[in-house]
Amino acid sequence: MQPLILPVLLASFWTVCTGSADWCYQSQFTCEHQCNAPAMWDHASSNCAGSVQSPINIVTRKTLKDERLTHFEFKNYKQIITSRVKNNGHSVQVEIPHLSSISGGGLPNTYKAVQFHLHWGNDGGPGSEHTIDGEQYPMELHIVHMKHHYTDLKTALSDPEGVAVLGFFYEMSNSENQKYDPLISSLQKITATNTNTSLLSTSLAQLIPSETNLTSYYRYKGSLTTPPCTEAVIWTVFENPIPLSMNQLKAFSELRFADKKQMVDNFRPIQRLNGRQVFWSGSAMTLASSVLLVSAITMALGMAQPN
Ligand SMILES: *[C@@H]1O[C@H](CO)[C@@H](O)[C@H](O)[C@H]1NC(C)=O
Ligand SMILES: *[C@@H]1O[C@H](CO)[C@@H](O)[C@H](O)[C@H]1NC(C)=O
Ligand SMILES: [Zn+2]
């Protein structure tokens, strides 16, 4: 009889773990709360076991430089977002009125901003979803866009190129980033899951590096990094990180999951590349320095003209 006990126990554990479409991060999984952790997300949505999943580790040595990855045009990114910031039980999320958009950057279309949210670690520890040569940054911002003619994300996700997500890393800096004050001060009002508060004077432009620092980025095709893990995302991961102080990074760990545990380590582990090529826009030469370069060449050409 003895040897039977383990399989029976395992079988009942399996039933509990797979019985629900409820998904969670590894940091939420305990014996008392057996939710579907990332390795079991395919029980919440079969897409999560697909072959072009996100996030990935970007091996810079294996990226391919692509001249088509030109600079982005950001439209209405400076507009103040009059919206609410919400603790949705997995992250902090802000729905954006569909007025800001991106084009260029090698994208096949214009994409309009739908929402943004973040993924972070524990009190400023490693917490980004994408990693660069194995390095995990403390946090990652995702600005989710959909092809301009769609009106809702659900429809856009049925198009294999329907969604474009811009990913930005954070790095610890010694000084506070005051542009983040409105967002970070709102966090203390939404520590509980399913609460929200109004977001004070913040624009998308304010949350990301200046345009001249956004010319160096990686591009690949992947998926949403949470269930339903739909494989409909053109990913852009920017090289230049956003600076935040340690206290600002730690503020995110004050949020709570639905089970009231600290909302920390809300990132999905990296997924297999399965033969995908990651493209790179080229060196971090800024717009300003390329303008200088062009004028230098023009001058040199001018000087070489025979009189
Ligand atoms: C914010 O919370 C209120 C009260 O629970 C709710 O009625 C409202 O729908 C929420 N708004 C958003 C955008 O989640
Ligand atoms: C832009 O990049 C430079 C060089 O990496 C850095 O010193 C500067 O702080 C960055 N500016 C912004 C706004 O990110
Ligand atoms: Zn995300």
TrEMBL record:
Q: Which reaction does it catalyse?
A: hydrogencarbonate + H(+) = CO2 + H2O
Which Gene3D superfamilies does the annotation name?
Answer: Alpha carbonic anhydrase (3.10.200.10)
Q: Which GO terms describe its cellular component?
A: plasma membrane; side of membrane
Which keywords belong to this entry?
Cell membrane, Disulfide bond, Glycoprotein, GPI-anchor, Lipoprotein, Lyase, Membrane, Metal-binding, Signal, Zinc
Q: For this protein, what is the EC number?
A: 4.2.1.1
Enzyme's top EC category: lyase
What PROSITE patterns does the entry give? ALPHA_CA_1, ALPHA_CA_2
Q: Which cofactor does it need?
A: Zn(2+)
- Membrane topology reported for the UniProt record: Lipid-anchor; GPI-anchor
Return the similarity comment. Belongs to the alpha-carbonic anhydrase family.
Q: How does it assemble?
A: Interacts with SLC4A4.
Job of this protein? Catalyzes the reversible hydration of carbon dioxide into bicarbonate and protons and thus is essential to maintaining intracellular and extracellular pH. May stimulate the sodium/bicarbonate transporter activity of SLC4A4 that acts in pH homeostasis. It is essential for acid overload removal from the retina and retina epithelium, and acid release in the choriocapillaris in the choroid.
What is this protein identified as? Carbonic anhydrase
Organism from which the protein derives: Monopterus albus (Swamp eel)
Origin organism lineage: Eukaryota, Metazoa, Chordata, Craniata, Vertebrata
